[in-house]
C-alpha cells in the first residue's frame, strides 16, 4: 500500500511550495520513488488506450497492483522566497471550473478502478486558495453541486445550475459519482507573515465499487 498522506508530509518539509502543477507532480513522484523503490513510477500515462486519450498524472505499479494519482494545484497570487528560490504564483481564479475538474478526476478514477485498470486511485488538490475549503451555499450558485468544502459528503449526480456557455465550455456533462466521499482538508505548509496563503490539501481515495 502507498501512504500518500505520509509522502505529502515528507515532501512538505523541503518543498512547501511549487512553481506549477507539473513541478508538484514531478516532486511527489520523485519522493514516492525514493520511499517505494520496488514500484515502477510513470507520469502522464493513457490508461484507457481508446480513441479519446486521457492521461493520468502518476501511475505506480508493482506486479498486478496499480495506483493512479490525479493532481490539481490551484493558486492565489503570492510572491515569496524559500531557500533562496523565488516563487511567483499566479492568481488562477475560476474556482467553479477548478471544483468541477477535481470532481471529474474522481469520476475518472472510479471508472479506472471499476474497469480493473487500477487497484486504487487518489485525487489530490493542493492549494493556497482557501475559498475551495470554505463552505458556500449550494442553492443559488451556478456551481453549488460542485462544492468541495471541508466536511461535505460528496455523492450522487452533480450538474451546473444556470452557468454560462463560457463557464461550461468543455465541462458540459454532469458528473455522476458511484461512491460517497467525506471531504477532509489537511494542512500542508504555511509561511511566516503569509497566514492567508497557507497551503492545504484535499485527498480522496477511490476504491473499486462492490
What does this structure look like?
This protein has one domain (4-206). The protein is built from 4 helices and 10 strands, in the order ααβββββαββαβββ. It has helices spanning 4-14, 21-35, 95-114, 165-168, and strands at 40-46, 55-62, 65-74, 78-82, 85-89, 120-127, 153-158, 175-182, 185-189, 199-206. Helix 1 packs across helix 2 (21-35). It is globular, with a radius of gyration of 17 Å. The mean pLDDT is 89.
N-to-C SSE string, H for helix and E for strand: HHEEEEEHEEHEEE
Radius of gyration: 17 Å
Low-confidence stretches: none
Q: Which word captures the global form?
A: globular
Please report the number of helical segments.
4
Tell me the layout of helices and strands.
Blueprint: H1 4-14, H2 21-35, E1 40-46, E2 55-62, E3 65-74, E4 78-82, E5 85-89, H3 95-114, E6 120-127, E7 153-158, H4 165-168, E8 175-182, E9 185-189, E10 199-206
Helix pairs in contact: 1-2
Explain briefly what this protein structure is.
This protein is α+β, with helices and mostly antiparallel strands and 210 residues long.
Pick out its properties.
two-stranded antiparallel sheet; alpha+beta; 4 helices
Amino acid at each position: 500500500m502507498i501512504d500518500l498522506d505520509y509522502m505529502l508530509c515528507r515532501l512538505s518539509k523541503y518543498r512547501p511550495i511549487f512553481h506549477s502543477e507539473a513541478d508538484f507532480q514531478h516532486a511527489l513522484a520523485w519522493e514516492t520513488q525514493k520511499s517505494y523503490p520496488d514500484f515502477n513510477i510513470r507520469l502522464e500515462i493513457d490508461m484507457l488506450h481508446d480513441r479519446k486519450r486521457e492521461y493520468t498524472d502518476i501511475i505506480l505499479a508493482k506486479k498486478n497492483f496499480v495506483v493512479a494519482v490525479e493532481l490539481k494545484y490551484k493558486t492565489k497570487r503570492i510572491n515569496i522566497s524559500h531557500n533562496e528560490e523565488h516563487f511567483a504564483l499566479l492568481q488562477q481564479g475560476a474556482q467553479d471550473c477548478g471544483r468541477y475538474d477535481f470532481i471529474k478526476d474522481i469520476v475518472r478514477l472510479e471508472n479506472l478502478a471499476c474497469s480493473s485498470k487500477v487497484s486504487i486511485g487518489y485525487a489530490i488538490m493542493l492549494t493556497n486558495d482557501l475559498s475551495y475549503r470554505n463552505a458556500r451555499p449550494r442553492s443559488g450558485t451556478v456551481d453549488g453541486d460542485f462544492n468541495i468544502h471541508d466536511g461535505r459528503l460528496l455523492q450522487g449526480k452533480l450538474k451546473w445550475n444556470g452557468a454560462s456557455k463560457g463557464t461550461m465550455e468543455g465541462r458540459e456533462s454532469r458528473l455522476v459519482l458511484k461512491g460517497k466521499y467525506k471531504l477532509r482538508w489537511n494542512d500542508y505548509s504555511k509561511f511566516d507573515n503569509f497566514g492567508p496563503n497557507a497551503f492545504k490539501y484535499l485527498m480522496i481515495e477511490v476504491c473499486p465499487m462492490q
